DUF177 domain-containing protein (Nibrella viscosa), 181 residues
Amino acid sequence: METELRKYDINIFGLENKRYEFDFESGDKFFEAMDQELIQKGNFKTHLTLDKSETMIQLNFHITGQVELTCDRSLDTFDEPIDIRQKHVLKFSDHNEELTDEIELILRNTPVINVARYIFDFIGLSLPMKKLHPRFREEEEQEADDETEGKLIYRSDADQTDDDQAPIDPRWEALKKLNNN
């Protein structure tokens, strides 16, 4: 399956300092090649804008399509639409290191970058924590609304009338008198 991921290689060694655009179409073979169990099937397109400068490469991803998920409640499979926009920055350095989720250091003489892992990570992070078939989602939202209905969630002191104010601690009353002077 290595050959499937090779199509996500970008030769950066010979690129001039300017903007480049790449388009990738991916299907089930992409998820098989990633050697993971989170997503098995899906179809999506990735539009990648690469801005190369003297010190860094900025990658802007736009991923659209759908992936097949299994419902946590019914175990039925369903298609989850994806529409993701993410940015990743590769800064040239004398060593490789991941600084944050969005910034990574790469060697100055790196000839090729492979964007398949970035694409997969962005898709994986966009998926809902609770995977519900669309037929259960409205029901789930209704249950959440019912749980909060009729409960007092927040009440500020400004909402209280003079009649139901609790007696003030005498120590605070003394401090208020000092403040008024």
